[in-house]
Amino acid sequence: MLRISSSIDAVCSVEVTATERRLLGGIETKCGAWIAVVCLVYMGGCQRAPDHGEFHIGPIAAPLVKIADHKLESGELPQDRSYLTYGVTPYLGVQETKDAFSPIAKWLSKELGVEIRFVLADSYDDLVERFVRKEIDLVQLSPLSYVVAKEHMPGLHLLGTSLSFGAAEYSSLLIVRADSTLREMSDLKGNATKIRFGYVHERSASGFLLPYDALLRNDIDPQRDLKMIRMGSHEHAVKALMRGQVDLAAVSSGTLNNVRRGVVIGVGNIRTFYKAGRLPYDAVCAGSWVSDSASQKITSAFASLSTRTSAGREVLAKARGVTGWCAATDERYGVIRKYYHRVRAERWRALGRQRAPAQVTPTGDP
Known about the structure:
Order of helices and strands: EEHHEHEHEHEEEHHEHEHEEHHEH
Number of helices: 12
Shape: globular
Strand content: 15-25%
CATH architecture of the largest domain: 3-Layer(aba) Sandwich
Structural class: alpha/beta
Radius of gyration: 21 Å
Number of strands: 13
CATH superfamily of the largest domain: Periplasmic binding protein-like II
Helix content: 25-40%
């Protein structure tokens, strides 16, 4: 029978046995969701926990388009080059991110018939800057990094968005230790000692942007009322919380799901303090200098990689929940753009500036 349990993402998680999977017959919707499972979940009375995000994501786009032959021709590569580069940020930690994404680069090399060189950027900003400088051809951008990159490269190719456990969106969470005395937003103010707030990075949507906006909407000025500490990655934020180095942490729901599944080692009981909102997963993009025909073939290569095949499961074995990709439009990331503009304006105001500049460099935000 179906076993339904409440997940940390505040959406019911469903485990399906092998027998049930055969009975369901492989009926799939866009991006690989099971129609029958969804129906059974709703029949079972699954309810969402409150979502405090002010802006909401639009409809999911269609599945990625596959073409019969996606081998790249020499004329489709950037001038004077026989290879492409594929870059990501170390949002899982350096070694963990290498283990997760370098197999994807190897897969792309085989599928596209050209060398794909894996590049691990130093940070969110480093990846955007190198992409804008045309040093990296293909990138896996966090939602906020995509918005920033799009401002500086309007002609970039948005190839698709990541799926995690079959879902195209996830939650931004504020978390505390299970034994924490923090229960409500009002508990974060008026303390003799400032609450230590561990966030991922200013370019992280789930690990900074949405939580920062949520705090502002609850009359809390993070710069004034909290002691802000940059963690560098989602997993570092979770571990710092468990070690007592911070009192409150901002992370993605996927990170917390990995904690629950025992993927993140050395952490114990954690409680969700506040759900800041939902957002689309990472955007896979190609630079504006990559031809349309090459972009279509690269998209097709990503479309052929998912955990629905044995080969895909092997490639994505260490990808921390990435199960494939589906199509996306810029409109899907409009929700991030709204949060970004509002938080950026507020941070400039807090610094005593008259107004935010019309244009900023990838590292030009306060």
